[in-house]
Amino acid sequence: MKRHIPNIITCCNLLSGAMAVMLAFEGLYICAFGCIMIGACFDFFDGMTARILGVSGPIGKELDSLADVITFGLAPSAMLVQSVRQATENSNYEWGWWSMVFFIMAAFSAVRLARFNCDERQTDSFIGLATPANALFWASLITTYPDMASWAMWMPWAMLAACLISCYLLVAELPMFSLKFHNLSWTDNKTQYMFIIGCVAIVALCTALGHFIASGALIIVWYIVANLMLLAKNK
Asked: Each residue of 158-202: pLDDT tens digit?
């Protein structure tokens, strides 16, 4: 029985993502965001549970990627599609079915996850932006500003450009640090500690301004900037 426990947790991740997709198309972005976060929790604990129980296997690995495609690929894409459709439906620049182009992010997320399974370099760090990080950026952004596509005629195009940039980051050969700690030493984990300090500052500022959920998007921007700074420093 214990060998099924991690897979059950992974399926809970998938179901959370599926509910997020449904809620996104209902325009219930806060609920969809919550389901994505719940899915992220299940995603964290399925691997940990498998290691604790000593039942890791290839089926669990593949199932985990399939669940992640739904929760961290399709769900945030659905939020983006519905947001653009709703925000422009009563304007002179209605996107309608053209908003489906934002589903390209789900495809790139799938490619990212497939490459991750085959890439032995990504044990203690990442190559490219992780799908949960990309999902957090878009889910928190859409939840905070669901009507931003209506701000200006060019705004949906700006969102599309940002979507394409995130697609590139998902599959880019760009080394990115993880938050794995092998010890508590400042010297060995200076990058991680600095990043966490920045995250605390971002959350505190957004909370003070009444935009707590927006801190998720800003944290991912900070993460990308921190990695680019680290890359420039090491060159």
From this structure: 999 999 999 999 999 899 988 877 777 877 788 889 999 999 999
Residues 96 and 184 in one domain: no
Please give the residue range of the domain that contains residue 111: 2-178
Mark whether 10 and 126 lie in a shared domain.
yes
C-alpha separations of 4 from 38, 57, 63, 65 in Å? 20, 11, 12, 17
* Residue 215 and residue 113 share a domain: no
Residue 66 has pLDDT above 70, yes or no: yes
